[in-house]
Amino acid sequence: MVRLAALVLVCILALTGAARADLQGQYERFLEDTMWPKARSAGVSRATFDRAMGQKRLNTDIPGLVRPGQTTPQRIRQAEFSAPARYFNENNLGAIVSQGRRLASQHASTLAALERRYGVPGRIILAIWGRESAFGRVDIPHDAFQVLGTKAFMSTRPDLFRTELVAALQMVERGNATPAQMKSSWAGALGQPQFLPTSFLEHAVDIDGDGKLNIWTSVPDTLGSIAAYLDHFGWVSGRDWGFEVSVPADISCSFEGPDQGLKIRDWAAMGITRISGRPFPAHEMDLEAYLMMPAGRSGPAFIVTPNFYVLKQYNESDLYALFVGHAGDRIEWGSGRFKAAWGRVDTLYRSEIAAMQRVLEGKGYDVGGADGLPGFKTRRSIGDWQQKNGRQPTCFPSKALIGAIR
């Protein structure tokens, strides 16, 4: 019996090894037949291509991969939706604020020059730097070409990563970095500002004047590249990102969203006030802004400006943009935590939220896609459904709500 079990194990290992060898062979053919022609058309030499791709080894440890011809990721798991309050863990946020305040003094002249040039406040640049790479202290150990090559071959978004792989090869061809310097995250993001290669080619700038675009070890180039990125996407100089507010109970949370803007004066006339008790800045009163309630009625509420949505160009998450804006405020003014508390929300799996989103889509609601993440379109769709069904709008998913929306 023991020998039989051992024989079965040997057979399984042999089959697994054969499958891996077959997949590796497919990958090598993909690089030659698909990626090399794309790289050559983009001006990449054969020498650069071979030097960058190295041993052409797949990395099947990368999350979210799919085998060629399939659509389901290899490692399926019940991903728990993380309640918004967890995103603002004070240990992490407080560390970024504390270090950011020290660095604001250390790099004051550079940050002031960048604000004059790009209009982006130093506190925002610092908050992004801190969030992305802990001010350059986070170890980024992965081989960018192995990551991008693998994801170009077998990710859920192959076209995106094929473009990014070609851009990374162009970086080497142009002398921006050597293959050894091209370390990335699991997602292929590079350097201290965590730019994808296309973002590097479009937005990296030389601020320290050494003739190089260096987002790996140059702090001025890192800060300048973040500022240039935000400027490109429309940062409005002189406007804030937003204000924490109190929203009266008779104002529906379904008014949320960047397509339902009003002048701040009009929001104030509806009874929305700054939770700090201070008035809205006079220069903001006749400018458009938007209601944003990331946890519906279960957390803080905000009136945000177009600059909030510029921050979302860096990362599409509402919570990311809110984190950056809030951290930046605390870096510059020493302000404390949000005044309103994050309410307790049910523990849910993303698959449960996605199922609810599909039901709402079937009822004609625009939820922004059934991705298991309650963005503003999902939140306000929930509020609309609740209102139409005689419920008090909360604009946030719960177990009871998911059971009711069928």
From TrEMBL:
Name of the featured protein: Lytic murein transglycosylase
Residues annotated as domain Transglycosylase SLT: 29-329
Keywords: Signal
Highest taxon, organism lineage: Bacteria
UniProt keyword Signal, yes or no: yes
Cleaved signal peptide residues: 1-21
Gene Ontology MF, one: peptidoglycan lytic transglycosylase activity
Pfam families associated with the record: PG_binding_1, SLT_2
Domain Peptidoglycan binding-like, chain residue ranges per copy: 351-394
A GO biological-process term: peptidoglycan catabolic process
Organism: Oceaniradius stylonematis
